[in-house]
Amino acid sequence: MNPKLIKKQFEKSFETYDKNAVVQRVLAEKLSSQIAKIRVEYENILELGCGTGLLTKVLAKNLKFKNYFANDLVEKSEKYIKLIVPEAKFFLGNAQKIKTSQKFDLIISNAVFQWFENLDKVFEYFKPMLRKDGIFAFTTFAPDNYKEIAYLTGLSLDYKSLGEVKTVCSKYFDILYTEEYKQTLKFSTPLELLAHMKNTGVNSLTSKHWTIKEVKDFCDRCSDCYATPKLTYSAIIFVGRVD
User: Fold this and answer.
1) Which H or E run contains 109?
2) d(CA 104, CA 98)
3) Is the four-CA dihedral 54, 69, 108, 150 of positive or negative sign?
4) Residue pLDDT, tens place only, 184-199
5) SS3 157
6) pLDDT reported for residue 59
7) 54-62 helix and 22-38 helix, angle to the nearest 10 degrees
8) Predicted local confidence at residue 194, as pLDDT
9) What does the CA dihedral 143, 144, 148, 149 come to, rounded to 10 degrees?
């Protein structure tokens, strides 16, 4: 993973992200709904990889909180978040380098953990930041995610299965809820599919810039393999609690 590349690509997609992040919006709603079932009032919330505030908006609507803390790699994310929660405190940079003595009742993240290479280190890092009975909740993507892109290009992240996620998480948290969610998006043309990826910032699977010929080759292969260009989203929803 290259944090600089991830930052660059997501920064480019900020203006188009909310309109195109169809599945991420569904995941935000599902995650927030599960959190609200546990409780609706929190003192301190920390959101990791807040981006344009897609999850922030849902949490602000469904939960009550005293203090909101948000983190992202992209500087202008702070402006987006403060339009939703004006008093929010913003941590800029790599989530695993956040330095704070603050204790949180809820640490939450949507569609970010697939970018972390070592979940063990992630959970080990954030668990001490949670109060007793604190909630750790996130969505991430599973091995079938973007399987069409993997098939056509060989490019894919090292997605973890639900079983793998549960095995690691159970070492740090009591597992309260898990869910697997799949949704397939269909497109009119292969170029529209590529535009969707670009507009949601996930074209950071590689640092290589495609030439016009490579784009054409991709479109030809896509048309040969699929009558209708499509992308499969395969996601995991996880909620745990400090024991």
Assistant:
1) strand 104-109
2) 13
3) positive
4) 999 999 999 999 999 9
5) coil
6) 98
7) 30
8) 94
9) -30
* Whole-number Å distance between alpha carbons of 175 and 192: 39
DSSP codes, 170-183: TTTSEEEEEEEEEE
Evaluate if pTM is beyond 0.90: yes
What 3-state class would DSSP assign to 42? strand
CB 117 within 8 A of CB 87: no
Cβ atoms of 131 and 102 within 8 Å: the answer is no
Give the dihedral of Cα atoms 82, 83, 85, 90; nearest 10 deg. -20
Q: Region of 131 please: left (phi>0), alpha (psi -120 to 50) or beta.
A: beta
The amino acid sitting at 106 is L
Computed over every residue of the chain, the mean pLDDT equals: 94
Q: Which residues in the chain come in under a pLDDT of 50? A: none
CB 136 within 8 A of CB 42: no
**Residue 69 · residue 89 · CB < 8 Å:** yes
Each residue's pLDDT tens digit, 200-212 = 987 655 556 789 9
Pairing mode, if any, of strands 104-109 and 41-48? parallel
As a residue count, the chain comes to 243
CB-based burial label for 19 (10 Å; 0-12, 13-18, 19+): exposed
Residues 6 or more apart from 44 whose CB is under 8 A from it? Answer: 65, 66, 67, 69, 102, 103, 104, 105, 106
- Maximum C-alpha span of the chain: 56
